[in-house]
Write a structure and sequence with these properties.
Elements: E1 2-6, H1 8-17, H2 20-25, E2 28-32, H3 48-51, H4 58-65, E3 73-80, E4 94-101, H5 110-122
Parallel strand pairs: 1-2, 2-3, 3-4
Length: 123
């Protein structure tokens, strides 16, 4: 199975991939604009679900330490993301930087669809 996820969905996919059942069932995740290292802006949000994306959040740090799944993740991101100023690069993953700016705009661009098509073709 291949998961295609955007933003926080990529973190959830990695969390599932780190479980024994997820490791067996999920072959690949294409994570688009995912804040693997958190977002420096998260601490300013009053909403707990966004504040949890702080780079110092304990759960996010534990997820970062789970490196086994990284080799089965394709992290796709644009050259600039106002929500994730630190970027979406993930150590040990295949990192694909596209010539697109924005956090959501990338979802409607042909280069992303080409990456997804290529990943699905391998399955």
């Amino acid at each position: 199975m291949t998961i295609i996820a955007h933003s926080k969905g990529g973190l959830i996919a990695k969390l599932v991939m780190a479980t024994p059942q997820g490791a067996r069932r999920i072959r690949l995740t294409v994570a688009v604009s995912t804040p693997f290292g958190g977002s420096a802006y998260a601490r300013y949000f009053p909403v707990p679900s966004v504040r949890a994306l702080s780079p110092t959040d304990a759960a996010l740090l534990r997820l970062d330490a789970e490196r086994d799944a990284n080799a089965r993740i394709v992290s796709v991101y644009g050259w600039f993301d106002p929500h994730i100023p630190g970027g979406s690069e993930l150590v040990g993953a295949r990192n694909v930087r596209l010539p697109v700016g924005g956090h959501f705009r990338i979802l409607a661009k042909r280069p992303l669809l080409d990456v997804v098509d290529e990943c699905l073709a391998r399955e």
